[in-house]
Amino acid sequence: MFSVTSLGSGSKGNATVVRYDDELVLIDSGFSCKALEARLKARQIEPQDICAILVTHEHSDHFNGVPAFSRKYKTPVWMSCGTGMHPRVEKISHLHYLNTHTSFQLGKFEITPVAVPHDSREACQFILQAADWRVGILTDLGHITPYVSEQFSDLDILLLEFNHDLDLLLQGAYPEKLKRRVAGPLGHLSNRQACDFLAQQSWGKLKYLAAMHLSEENNRRELVERGIKAVGLPSDISTIIADQEKGFDWIELQ
Q1: Which phi and psi (to 5°) does residue 199 adopt?
Q2: CATH 3.30.70.100 given to domain 2-242
Q3: N or C, which end of the chain is more exposed by having fewer CB within 10 Å?
Q4: pLDDT greater than 90 at residue 254
Q5: Which residues form the Metallo-beta-lactamase domain (predicted)?
Q6: In angstroms, what CA-CA distances link 51 with 5, 22, 114, 173?
């Protein structure tokens, strides 16, 4: 069985777990070690059962809880060399560096890092494959590059950023500098950018689409739902919207 769950998604913390048979991989943890333990147990996961942690980049909403958790449970951690420049990385005892353009084997998973344009040292997102199933996690990027578009195809599950509605962002209370950062080419995907990406790809295998990393200040669930509906995806694709507090429960392929 191949399954995926989000433990929470948004600017206050992100963590995703992918499971194949008895192997579980955690992607990011922006939550404290204690909070991550509670969120794992809410999904019937024992923290010591996490086989490895993949880190997309060093921003606190993705990295905050990784050092303490990995140290407590002796969990190996994989990240790019650029992400590894963060000073708190020295607290990780089982650290491995990855090449953001080279796939590698991690237990039963084939991991494909994908370099993305984001305002961090060397951000990447991930595609995880086991048997014939593939899940792609694509958040925290300011725009879709041709390379990203090429890599994120032929998926069974796609976790895609719908960070903000551009009008809400521009009319909102964020300082102008922050607005420019979020909407810029190294920021976060807007609803329109995410929907344009969906419309331009062929999704013959896709079974689940999860909208991720919604801004609580600059987005609304109904806007995301409306945008996805307008794309006209095949009717057999199930759509999920992850939230900050609960993420989404297990989705399974078998």
Answers
A1: -70, -25
A2: no
A3: C
A4: no
A5: 12-188
A6: 15, 9, 21, 41
Q: For the chain, what are the domain ranges?
A: 2-242
Q: Which amino acid is at 144?
A: I
Instruction: Give dist(CA 120, CA 134) in Å, integer.
Output: 26
The one-letter amino acid code at 2 reads F
CB contact at 8 A, 196 and 164: no
- Contacts with 35 (C-beta within 8 Å, 6 or more apart), sequence order: 13, 65
pLDDT band at 93 (very low <50, low <70, confident <90, very high): confident
Strands 109-115 and 104-106: antiparallel
Quick one: tokens of 85? 């420049």
Q: Is the pLDDT of residue 192 over 90?
A: yes
Confidence check: pLDDT of 155 > 90? yes
| Residue 226, C-beta contacts closer than 8 angstroms, at least 6 positions apart | none
CA distance 218 to 229: 20
- CB atoms near residue 148 (< 10 Å): 18
Distance CA 104, CA 98 (A): 8
Taking only the tens place, the pLDDT of each residue in 61-91 is: 999 999 999 999 999 999 999 999 999 999 9
Q: What is the pLDDT of residue 16?
A: 98
Percent of the chain whose predicted confidence (pLDDT) is above 90 = 98
CA distances to 98, 113, 198, 230 from 208, in Å: 28, 21, 13, 17
β-bridge pairing 2-8 and 50-54: unpaired
pTM of the model: 0.97
